[in-house]
Amino acid sequence: KMADPFLYDSGERSRYRCHGQEVQIEHIKAYACKPSFFTDKAVIVVHDIFGWLFPDIRYIVDLVALHGYIAICPDFFKGTEPWKTTDHWADFADWMKDHDPMKVDREADVVLKYLKEQCGAKKIGIVGFSWGGMAVHHLMLKNPQLNAGVSLYGIVRDSEERYSLLNPTFFIFGEKDHTISYDQITLLEEKLKQYCKTAYKIKVYPGQVHGFAQLKPEDMKPQDKPYIEEARQDMFDWIKTYI
């Protein structure tokens, strides 16, 4: 039996009132939130396995907008079922076959075009969580239009070509994430040192489990709060530096 990757119960969440709105972009629905002033900087937020409707990810989108960016979370599952808290982990590998985080290029291009043509975005960053972290890692290798990336606890576990990132990328991990071993993080660091020709950073946050950085304030445990806030601040500092 595959271990449940989430040590928190993703079903037990406080409700969240969103500040943004849903938009349709070609074949994709998306949740978007804009700051109160004009900006030509945008950030794509890539959801985890629970999809674009999940309250935690919408909270992150709103937070990104609050920091002064056009923020958008497209439905990278294209209307198909996200993973649900009632699903069985035994079926996870099969579900992943139909939800491949390396097959996000077409949707990313559609959203990039929308941000540039409809929103006036000149510089675009991307942040992704878990499944979305893997998608970000992949896109930062493939899409030069993305000026900066932050991959949160999503590790791409294969060949050498996974390390020649096109633009600055920051990798965030939790020390107690039992889906990603410390060896994998060490390997990532060694390989980036060898192959990567752009700025990168890897940081591991003490005591944190998988999924730690997207919790809403009222869902945080007091002992985790400082690390969650630090990870978010680090994420925004990275984005600000490069876009």
UniProtKB/TrEMBL annotation:
<dbReference type="GO" id="GO:0005829">
    <property type="term" value="C:cytosol"/>
</dbReference>
<dbReference type="GO" id="GO:0016787">
    <property type="term" value="F:hydrolase activity"/>
</dbReference>
<dbReference type="InterPro" id="IPR029058">
    <property type="entry name" value="AB_hydrolase_fold"/>
</dbReference>
<comment type="similarity">
    <text>Belongs to the dienelactone hydrolase family.</text>
</comment>
<protein>
    <recommendedName>
        <fullName>Carboxymethylenebutenolidase homolog</fullName>
    </recommendedName>
</protein>
<dbReference type="InterPro" id="IPR002925">
    <property type="entry name" value="Dienelactn_hydro"/>
</dbReference>
<dbReference type="Pfam" id="PF01738">
    <property type="entry name" value="DLH"/>
</dbReference>
<feature type="domain" description="Dienelactone hydrolase">
    <location>
        <begin position="28"/>
        <end position="242"/>
    </location>
</feature>
<dbReference type="InterPro" id="IPR042946">
    <property type="entry name" value="CMBL"/>
</dbReference>
